[in-house]
Amino acid sequence: MDAFLQAAIDEARQGLAEGGIPIGSVIVHQGRIIGRGHNRRVQQGSAILHGEMDAFENAGRQPASVYRESVLYTTLSPCPMCTGAILLYGIPKVIVGENQTFMGDEALLRERGVQVEVLQDADCIAMMRGFIRDKPELWNEDIGV
Amino acid sequence: MDAFLQAAIDEARQGLAEGGIPIGSVIVHQGRIIGRGHNRRVQQGSAILHGEMDAFENAGRQPASVYRESVLYTTLSPCPMCTGAILLYGIPKVIVGENQTFMGDEALLRERGVQVEVLQDADCIAMMRGFIRDKPELWNEDIGV
């Protein structure tokens, strides 16, 4: 298991333990995690703190040069909002835990030149399957359905 | 002057008075503002609280049905991140103060069926021109340049 994907999964599990939506993310610059986060919809009543957005926020203000040498890891295929944040900051590479329970805007990322790798990780899939089964209304709210 | 664009401009001016980036936004549902905000990069050290994102956050958790009947006003053409948030939540209409100082992802919004109206408002243009002239490095950081 990739240590950075594991860190994103740890974030997702922490979110689940808090009663939240189990999606986690880390941003890695030159082999070091500079931001980590998980979805905060339930915990903070937030409409914008998806896992990836929380990782961007926790990384703090960074110069463009840092983003352009960073890799973003996320347990789930990035939704349009998180895709937009990746494009805004010019993140060149995104590692996705899985896209079987939700297909985000990967096509747009690739179209704009972002390298996207999808791992179809069994733990990520099982975690989201269980969550969607248990709390379908919460999940639908999170993806605007 | 449209009262809702004026409310977005008021938010932008408040941000400027706080030493921040002068971009404001409001989200209007059935003729009533449900969320308002302005860029918080300087004030909160935030990488994700653009004006539109702050308006989404301040609107709180809303069901999809509310977003789909809402209009988003913003003083400036929405960047890729804010464009993605608009797409995630299915906002059908966006009123843009101006796109002369910055051209966001309006083409993607239109491609995905969002109605976009650009007003080329003189106050919005003057406010951003002055800000970009005075603080070019801060502006570049905000748009990932």
TrEMBL record, chains A, B:
Its main location: cytoplasm. One of its GO terms (biological process) is pyrimidine-containing compound metabolic process. It is found in: Cytoplasm. Its cofactor is Zn(2+). SUPFAM superfamilies: Cytidine deaminase-like. GO terms for molecular function: diaminohydroxyphosphoribosylaminopyrimidine deaminase activity; metal ion binding. Pfam families: dCMP_cyt_deam_1. InterPro entries: CMP_dCMP_dom, Cytidine_deaminase-like. Keywords: Cytoplasm, Hydrolase, Metal-binding, Zinc. Residues 1-116 form the CMP/dCMP-type deaminase domain. GO terms for cellular component: cytoplasm. Pathway: Pyrimidine metabolism. Homodimer. This is Cytosine deaminase. It comes from Pusillimonas noertemannii.
